[in-house]
Design goal:
The protein has about 375 residues and is α+β, with helices and mostly antiparallel strands. It folds into 3 domains: about 15-100, Rossmann fold (3-Layer(aba) Sandwich), CATH 3.40.50.20; about 125-185, 2-Layer Sandwich (Dna Ligase, domain 1); about 195-360, 2-Layer Sandwich (D-amino Acid Aminotransferase, Chain A, domain 1). It is about 25% helix and about 30% strand. It contains 11 helices and 17 strands. Strands 9, 10, 11, 12, 13, 14, 15, 16 and 17 form a 9-stranded antiparallel beta sheet that branches. The longest helix is centred in the middle third of the chain and has 17 residues, at about 235-250. It is globular, with a radius of gyration of 20 Å. The mean pLDDT is about 95.
């Protein structure tokens, strides 16, 4: 069955979600609001998304017997994070529609392939070069310059799988810390701020974008997102155009996050795309309370074959991640007027682990 041809889902249908983290949890909650059921598939027995769904499967992503049973129970399948093995998604696609298409995973799981894809759309990125050998690392340093960031081509997130190479650093030592994995070297970008666009595309090609969001990180982990971002109307328009162009180029169905850097070029400002996340995105959590439709509902609408909603921002909004032990200090947030608290139901509050978030919406 072609993912582009299946009929829109009816209330009571089941959406399969690969991955059982907080994004899967919030997708399932959005689906329930629309009268749809979710079946979550995850290798981790303590997946926090299991608490809010009717059906769940605990199995490896290469367990074809479990995958086949999962597919039989679902009407359409999606995923909550981009490190689902592409082979798993392709296997499921042979049985049920999988959205976004597994080809998107193949393009975004590998940083080098992703950069090449973005550049092919005539969209600017930071200077980069592949690193598969010591000689290639030397050539990459010569091309990109220093400082630079060495990143593993796959499986990196929240600052993992990265090493800085400054002017006095030994590039080979940096590569050794990444266990000589295939890498990409990216030029270090001096940017004014990081922004993102959460965009949604339906099966008929209609696109809706949320407001451009400004993001602040702490220890390589997103800490605070704010809307509206401090960008000019022209730059906001350009950011939306870039996100829409990428969604179209991917033939994307669902919600996608596009991270960008705002840089200065003389007296003007421009955008460089940092990376694409083929899923709902942490910087879009403010939409749960700060917009007429959340990014999670928008994604469910898209994969269900339903019309997208027109997002309307309710005011100035701010989202703060609760990371690690911060989740134990809720009293100040609970007492704060206008604060909406979202906890993910995770167990141990390990350092660097996202345990929940708080959103606040202010008048425009």
């Amino acid at each position: 069955m072609s993912a582009q041809r299946f009929s829109p889902l009816k209330a009571g249908a089941t959406i399969g979600i690969l991955g059982g983290g907080q994004l899967g949890r919030m997708l399932a909650q959005a689906a329930a609001k629309l009268g749809l059921h979710c079946h979550v598939y995850s290798p981790e027995q303590d997946s926090c998304a299991f608490e809010v769904v009717r059906r769940s499967t605990v199995a490896r992503y290469d367990d074809r017997k479990a995958l086949d049973a999962f597919a039989r129970d679902c009407d359409v399948i999606t995923y909550e994070f981009e490190n689902v093995p592409a082979e798993c998604a392709a296997f499921l696609k042979s049985r049920k529609p999988v959205l976004p298409d597994p080809s998107v995973l193949e393009n975004t799981q590998d940083r080098l392939i992703e950069k090449d894809f973005i550049v092919a759309q005539k969209i600017a990125v930071a200077p980069y070069a592949p690193v598969h050998s010591a000689s290639q690392l030397e050539a990459a340093i010569a091309k990109v310059g220093r400082p630079a960031v060495l990143k593993t081509r796959t499986l990196g997130y929240d600052g993992k799988g990265q090493a800085m190479i400054g002017k006095g650093d030994d590039p080979l030592a940096a590569w050794k810390t990444l266990k000589h994995a295939p890498c990409i070297l990216e030029g270090f970008v001096k940017y004014e701020r990081e922004v993102s666009v959460i965009t949604a595309r339906s099966r008929d090609g209609h696109v809706e974008c949320f407001d451009v969001t400004e993001n602040d990180h702490r220890d390589h982990i997103l800490k605070v997102s704010k809307v509206p971002a401090r960008v000019t109307p022209a730059l906001e328009k350009e950011a939306r155009r870039i996100a829409e162009r990428l969604a179209k180029a991917f033939d994307y169905v669902g919600v996608m996050g596009v991270e960008m850097f705002v840089i200065r070029r003389g007296k003007t400002r421009a955008l460089l795309v940092n990376e694409v996340a083929p899923r709902v995105h942490n910087s879009g959590h403010w939409t749960l309370d700060g917009a007429s439709v959340s990014q999670f509902e928008q994604h469910i609408r898209a994969v269900a074959g339903w019309p997208l909603a027109k997002p309307v921002r309710r005011g100035r909004a701010e989202m703060t991640n609760l990371i690690g032990a911060e989740v134990h200090d809720l009293e100040s947030w609970l007492a704060l007027p206008g604060a909406s608290i979202h906890l993910y139901g995770k167990g141990e509050a390990r350092p660097g682990r996202k345990m929940g978030h708080v959103t606040r919406v202010f008048s425009k």
